[in-house]
Every structure is written in structure tokens, then in C-alpha cells.
């Protein structure tokens, strides 16, 4: 084990909703400054894992540690205030709030700090947000909503950013813009990212390392490019090489 | 003409009281999707607290002038807020995540508990209070008929407008208001941004109860008689107002309250006092049939 603890350590975590056990003893680690991706088919449990890290649902077994500190079983808002932010599945923009208010909601965890500089960072990353500042979240296009979701997540100056399917339903050009932004953030600020994606090709090219989740279990892990080269990945997730 | 003007004044001041209660229904519905059927009884409790405060202040010889009335209002708001907080904590929060009807049943139970609690502790008889704010100004005279705008009606309208203005600023301009709106639009996402949603819900009940306390205190001062049962009728009418305005809409609640107050008053004046409740509740039925989203409500299309 390295001197500094991993930014995120998921240790043998099981979780699910009601009678459904979505995660079976999942273990993964994300080191500080890393982009790690979790790929898998629809329903494999990817989103459940991100939500479980955030304490909703609470894990049924195993431990979750953030920068060495045990956060297992803590309420969601407390975990998020420890420096975790998520851009969730479906973006979940507040539809009847303006872009500005949505961003300010993201700064909620900053408590008394001035959200101004974070706002500027979001605009630098996605200039479109600045143009849409007074517009209601519900009236934005899908791509703009995704930018807003990521911008909102960054408002709290997170140590760990959880991204759930940022490419879903978006035009390739917008997807490229968003992935470029993630890459730039990671390179410039050393932001640690855990990225969940169905688009394995894109995700594995971006990430330093990847994990493959199948039916709630981790079946493979390795450096992004190495995973990309494996035939079973190509067959299962790259659907004949396009994408 | 003069008669109608008088009804207008009466209707508006009554409607303000309904509007204040209706805001509490609509806020709670917006944030946790339940009808808090005990809200009318919170209103009733607040009238009793105001009455007790008036009596205690009178015993101390302090019940004098506008400052004393303001003090009664503040005492009633503070203690009623505590009731609202406790209600949520005891009867609704443990049922969060349970089936949808559970908190509703609990609310009906709490309504019965509160009524009986007041009946047992304060007695079942009607409590009278002599007018603290007598008199008024003569607006116009038409033969023998004098249009009277009483001071208490002015007080009700003024206090309600001030309280609603403060409330509007709170909801639209402050971080707490933003957090409340976030919880209303997507509670899970609000938690993902570090909002303590349980605390926000508690505060919603506290604010709703304080607004009901303004209504309860004003009701006591205006009508001067209360009993343990007043919460039921006032509560159902305010609920009607909230539905008419569009449940979940804050301006809708106030608008609905005013309309119900006016409809009830004009119906009593021109048709039949005995059937005034029928008029109000017919509005509920008609709204639910022909305009289920209310006047200012929105269609639920966003949540898929």
C-alpha cells in the first residue's frame, strides 16, 4: 500500500434496493489524481455503485473509505460535504431553477465561502453556461444540461468527482467537448474522477484505469488502454468496433 | 353597492386567513408530496396559544396597545412552530420511505390526537375573548347601511401582507429558500449536493406552522370565539384553497384563499348563510373535476 491512502476505497461492498441485490462484494480503488472508469452493460449496477458511495442506498456489507476515512453508513449530505460530488444519472437538473441557481445549489457544501471563483471556473470550462445564466434548467438542451450537471458538481471544489454516463443521449461533438473538459480538469487541477460509462471505447481512452462490472461483480480491471485491447471487452462492450 | 363593498372587505380579510393556512398545506405537499391533514389543527392550537398568551399578559397587566398584540402573535408563532416541528418529527419522519399512504393516515391520526388533546386540556366549551381591537373607519354610507372597515380587518390584511412578503423573500432569495425549492424539485439530488434534506423538511413544517399561527391569532382577534374543533373546518377550507390555487404553488395558495374567502362571504350575503360551506366545498369538487392542477398549478410532466 502506498504512503498516501487512496482517494476512494470501496472494500467488498454489497448494496441494492429492496429485494434486488445490485452489487455483490465490489472492491475498487481510486488513487488521488486518477481518472478511473467503471464500464458495464445496462443494469450491471454502475449507477448503484456511485449512489452507494454517496450513502444512498447505504451499503449492506463492506466498507467505503474516502482519503483513508471510513464514511460507511454516513448520511448522504455529510458524505458530500467531505469533498465528494456527483453528476448523476439523468443529470437531475432542478428544472424550475435558473442555471445560476442550479450552480449556486452546487456550492451549498462550501458553506460560507464565496462561490464566485467556482462559478468562473464553470464558465471557463463550459462558456455556454454563462450565456444561459438566467434560463430555467428545464429549458436547456440535453448537452447544456450535462454541462450544467458537471459544472454544478464542481462548484463544491470536490476532491472526488463521480460522473454517471455523461455521454448518454448526446451528440458526438458535445460528448467530445465534455470529455475534453474532464481531461483538462484532471490534468490542470489533479481532480480525481470516477467515471461510469456505457460508452466503453470513449471511457477507456480517457481513463488511467478501468474496471468492468458484470451483474454487480467486478470481473476485470486494468489500465484503460490494456482493457481496450482485450478481445472479451471488444466483443461485449464495443459492439463490433464502432463508437 | 355599499353592501357589496362591505362583503368585499369581509371576504378579503377572511380570505387572507385561509390563504395563510393554505400556504402551509401547499408547502408540505410540494416538498414531501403529502397532505398534512393535521395542519388545520395546528391552526387551532395556535389560536389557543394566542388566547392563553392574551390571558397571561392581561393578568400581568401588560395586555395593552399594539406592542402587546405583536407579542401575542410572536409567542403564538414560536410555540406553534414547535408543535409543527414535533408533528413532523414524531408522526411523519419515521414513515418516510414507507408506502405512500402511511404519512397521510398518520396525519389524520395526529389531527384527532391534537383535537382531543386540546379538548381534554382546555375543555370542550367555546372560549370567548372580548374584542381587543374595537372600532373601525366608516368607508361609505348608503342610507342606513354603513360600510365599516374595522381596525381588526385592517390589521389582518396588513399583517398578512407583511408576513407573505417576508415569506416570499425567504423562499426566493435566501439559501434556505433555495434549499427548500431544491428539495421540492428533486430531494435526492438536493442531498447529493450536501443539503440536509431532513432538516429542510423540518424547517418547512416550522415555517408552515408559524404562518398558520398568524392565521390563528388573527382569527382569534377577529371572531373572538374558539373551540377545539375550529381547525377542522378552517383546515378543510384552506385545503380547498390550496387545491383551487394549484397544490404546490405558493402564490396559488394565497390566491385560492382569497377566492374561497370571497366566494364564501358573497354566498352568505346573497344566498344563504347555512349553505356557505356547501359553496366552498362545491368549489373543491368542481376544481378537482375540471381543473385538477388548479389555477396556478402546473401539469406534472417533468418527472418521468
UniProtKB/TrEMBL annotation, chain B:
InterPro entries referenced in this protein's UniProt entry, alphabetically: ABC_transp_permease (IPR001851), BCAA_transport_permease (IPR052157)
Pfam families listed in its UniProt record: BPD_transp_2
Transmembrane segments: 12-35, 42-62, 68-87, 151-171, 201-222, 279-297
Keywords for the protein's UniProt record, in alphabetical order: Amino-acid transport, Cell inner membrane, Cell membrane, Membrane, Transmembrane, Transmembrane helix, Transport
Top-rank taxon: Bacteria
Membrane topology, from the record: Multi-pass membrane protein
Location(s) in or outside the cell: Cell membrane
GO cellular component term, pick one: plasma membrane
Molecular function per GO: L-isoleucine transmembrane transporter activity; L-leucine transmembrane transporter activity; L-phenylalanine transmembrane transporter activity; L-valine transmembrane transporter activity
Main location: membrane
Gene Ontology BP term (one): L-isoleucine import across plasma membrane
Family (UniProt): Belongs to the binding-protein-dependent transport system permease family. LivHM subfamily.
Name listed for the protein in its UniProt record: Branched-chain amino acid ABC transporter permease LivH
Amino acid at each position: 500500500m502506498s504512503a498516501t491512502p487512496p482517494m476512494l476505497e470501496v472494500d467488498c461492498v454489497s448494496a441494492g434496493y429492496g429485494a434486488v441485490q445490485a452489487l455483490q462484494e465490489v472492491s475498487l480503488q481510486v488513487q488521488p489524481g486518477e481518472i478511473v472508469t467503471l464500464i458495464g452493460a445496462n443494469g450491471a449496477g454502475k449507477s448503484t455503485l456511485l449512489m452507494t458511495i454517496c450513502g444512498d442506498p447505504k451499503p449492506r456489507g463492506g466498507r467505503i473509505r474516502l482519503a483513508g476515512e471510513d464514511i460507511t453508513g454516513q448520511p448522504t449530505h455529510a458524505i458530500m460535504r467531505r469533498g465528494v460530488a456527483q453528476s448523476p444519472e439523468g443529470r437531475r437538473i432542478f428544472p424550475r431553477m435558473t442555471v445560476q441557481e442550479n450552480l449556486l445549489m452546487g456550492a451549498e457544501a462550501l458553506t460560507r465561502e464565496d462561490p464566485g471563483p467556482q462559478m468562473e471556473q464553470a464558465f471557463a470550462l463550459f462558456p455556454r453556461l454563462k450565456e444561459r445564466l438566467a434560463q430555467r434548467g428545464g429549458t436547456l438542451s440535453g448537452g447544456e444540461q450535462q454541462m450544467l450537471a458537471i459544472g454544478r458538481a464542481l462548484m463544491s471544489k470536490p476532491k472526488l468527482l463521480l460522473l454517471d454516463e455523461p455521454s448518454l443521449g448526446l451528440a458526438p461533438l458535445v460528448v467530445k467537448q465534455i470529455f475534453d473538459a474532464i481531461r483538462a480538469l484532471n490534468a490542470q487541477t489533479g481532480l480525481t474522477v470516477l467515471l461510469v460509462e456505457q460508452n466503453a471505447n470513449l471511457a477507456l481512452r480517457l481513463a488511467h484505469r478501468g474496471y468492468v462490472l458484470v451483474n454487480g461483480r467486478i470481473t476485470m480491471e486494468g489500465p484503460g488502454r490494456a482493457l481496450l485491447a482485450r478481445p472479451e471487452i471488444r466483443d461485449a462492450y464495443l459492439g463490433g468496433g464502432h463508437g | 353597492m355599499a353592501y357589496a363593498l362591505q362583503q368585499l372587505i369581509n371576504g378579503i380579510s377572511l380570505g387572507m386567513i385561509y390563504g395563510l393556512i393554505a400556504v402551509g398545506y401547499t408547502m408540505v405537499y410540494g416538498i414531501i408530496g403529502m397532505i398534512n391533514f393535521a395542519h388545520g389543527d395546528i391552526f387551532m392550537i395556535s389560536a389557543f396559544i394566542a388566547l392563553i398568551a392574551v390571558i397571561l399578559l392581561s393578568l400581568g397587566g401588560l395586555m395593552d396597545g399594539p406592542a402587546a398584540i405583536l407579542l401575542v402573535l410572536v409567542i403564538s408563532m414560536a410555540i406553534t412552530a414547535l408543535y409543527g416541528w414535533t408533528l413532523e418529527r414524531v408522526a411523519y419522519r419515521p414513515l418516510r420511505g414507507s408506502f405512500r399512504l402511511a404519512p397521510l393516515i398518520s396525519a389524520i391520526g395526529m389531527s384527532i390526537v391534537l383535537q382531543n388533546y386540546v379538548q381534554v386540556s382546555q375543555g370542550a366549551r367555546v372560549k370567548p375573548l372580548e374584542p381587543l381591537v374595537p372600532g373601525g373607519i366608516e368607508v361609505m354610507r348608503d342610507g342606513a347601511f354603513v360600510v365599516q372597515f374595522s381596525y381588526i380587518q385592517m390589521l389582518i390584511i396588513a399583517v398578512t401582507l407583511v408576513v407573505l412578503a417576508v415569506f416570499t423573500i425567504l423562499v426566493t432569495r435566501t439559501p434556505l429558500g433555495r434549499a427548500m425549492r431544491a428539495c421540492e424539485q428533486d430531494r435526492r439530488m438536493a442531498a447529493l449536493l450536501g443539503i440536509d434534506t431532513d432538516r429542510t423538511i423540518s424547517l418547512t413544517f416550522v415555517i408552515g406552522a408559524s404562518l398558520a399561527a398568524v392565521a390563528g391569532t388573527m382569527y382569534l382577534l377577529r371572531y373572538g370565539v374558539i373551540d377545539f374543533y375550529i381547525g377542522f373546518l378552517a383546515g378543510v377550507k384552506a385545503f380547498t384553497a390550496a387545491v383551487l390555487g394549484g397544490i404546490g404553488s405558493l402564490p396559488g395558495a394565497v390566491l385560492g384563499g382569497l377566492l374561497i374567502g370571497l366566494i364564501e362571504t358573497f354566498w352568505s350575503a346573497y344566498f344563504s348563510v347555512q349553505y356557505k360551506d356547501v359553496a366552498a366545498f362545491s368549489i373543491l369538487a368542481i376544481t378537482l373535476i375540471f381543473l385538477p392542477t388548479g389555477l396556478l398549478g402546473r401539469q406534472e410532466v417533468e418527472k418521468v
